[in-house]
Specification:
384 residues, alpha/beta, FAD/NAD(P)-binding domain, D-Amino Acid Oxidase, Chain A, domain 2, eight-stranded mixed beta sheet, 27% helix, FAD/NAD-bd_sf, FAD-dep_OxRdtase
Length: 384
């Protein structure tokens, strides 16, 4: 186990995709004495429980750019880090059943195309050719981008961690942060269960637990945890190898291949905010109802497993990325509301540039946490 260093140039809090990407990008840029602390095992929070989808199909220009930049990084990940992340670029297929959905996605496709994303609208018959497990009853149209897909979240974390260590990052697991010390407006140390680290800078990448970390430095990060569940099925005979990530947008039912079977999930409107991650079956009747309506073939499949994880929800379902104005050198990247894993590579670049005082490849000023106090919400429509 890595010993706790007594000092650091910067402490990154959180060992999921966001923290490991940020630590890697900082160290690769030559930032010395980067220390990453994780209170449990790496990827043990939300990252290991993500569905693994990667996409650039969003309604918000910033999310499109962060998603597209991350897709480029995922494509070269093996070459850059030496780790295979099981990337399947099979596309994302959004199934649309109301005129309002079609209109919103048509506008989204125009915006995406203008930013270089090759998404397009499809008719129901084309959608069923791509995803033969669905029924087209009541379907008006679909949106598809072939560049999207899915990969293995834990593999991304371990790849970033190994590469970060090669660049000198100290990674300390089983090290819970209990406080952040300041003198005036300056950060002076991070206090952990294993001891104190003198440091002038902190990056909060603690996901659903970020609000408590921000509060230690007097920074309000309006993030709420919300349980989301996933089920895994038995092997499916004759499953197309290029089956896209398929999402019935009206119900939020989604599925993609997981080994020889399927990974299936959807949102649960009855779920209340909290840190519980036990699985339960209260969502299954609603899941079955959505399957019956849009993909009845799924009803015949036996569930062989599943898990629950936490979304980190903000009031407008968009991320918090920036540097606090109330205390010096407290940076944050959190609140991704379900699309954090897929934006991890690009956000690592952005936070690196903010730390170094450089202009990131995209202006993320609208994602600063202060937007809520200024009533400048930035809603994302394409949430699942």
């Amino acid at each position: 186990m890595t010993a706790l260093p007594g000092r650091a140039g910067v402490v990154v809090i959180g060992g999921g995709v966001m923290g490991t990407s940020i630590a890697y990008h900082l160290a690769r840029a030559g930032v010395p004495d980067v220390v990453l602390v994780e209170r449990d095992e790496l990827a043990s929070g939300s990252t290991s429980r993500a569905a693994g989808g990667v996409r650039a199909q969003f309604s918000d220009e910033l999310n499109i750019q962060l998603g597209a930049r991350s897709l480029e990084a995922f494509a070269r990940f093996g070459e850059e880090t030496g780790h295979d992340i099981g990337l399947h670029r099979v596309g994302y297929l959004f199934l649309l059943s109301t005129p309002e959905e079609v209109e919103a996605f048509e506008a989204g496709v125009r915006l995406q195309n203008g930013l270089g994303v090759p998404s397009r609208m499809l008719d129901p018959a084309e959608a069923r050719r791509l995803s033969p497990l669905i029924t087209t009853d009541g379907l008006l149209a679909a949106a598809f981008s072939p560049d999207d897909g899915h990969c293995t979240p834990e593999a991304v974390v371990h790849g970033y961690t190994a590469a970060a260590r090669r660049h000198g990052v100290r990674v300390v697991r089983h090290c819970e942060v209990t406080g952040i010390e300041t003198r005036g407006d300056d950060i002076t140390a991070v206090v952990t269960a294993l001891g104190r680290i003198d440091t002038p800078a902190v990056v909060c990448a603690a996901g659903a637990w970020s609000r408590a970390v921000g509060a230690m430095a007097g920074v309000d990060l309006p993030v709420e945890p919300l349980r989301r569940q996933i089920a895994v099925t038995e092997p499916v005979p004759d499953l197309p190898p290029d089956l896209p990530m398929t999402i019935d947008f009206t119900s939020s039912l989604y599925f993609h291949t997981e080994g020889p079977g399927l990974l299936v999930g959807m949102s649960d409107p009855d779920e209340r905010p909290g840190f519980a991650t036990e699985t339960h079956d209260r969502w299954i009747p609603r899941l079955c109802e959505a399957m019956e309506h849009r993909a009845p073939a799924l009803l015949d499949l036996r569930r062989t497993g599943g898990w629950a994880g936490l979304y980190e929800i903000t009031p407008d379902h968009n991320a918090l990325i920036g540097e606090a104005s109330s205390v010096s050198r407290f940076l944050y990247a959190t609140g991704f509301s379900g699309h954090g894993f897929l934006q991890g590579p690009a956000v690592g670049e952005v936070v690196r540039d903010l730390f170094l005082g450089h202009d990131p490849f995209v202006d993320i000023t609208p994602l600063r946490a202060e937007r809520f106090a200024a009533d400048a919400l930035r809603p994302e429509v394409n949430c699942v």
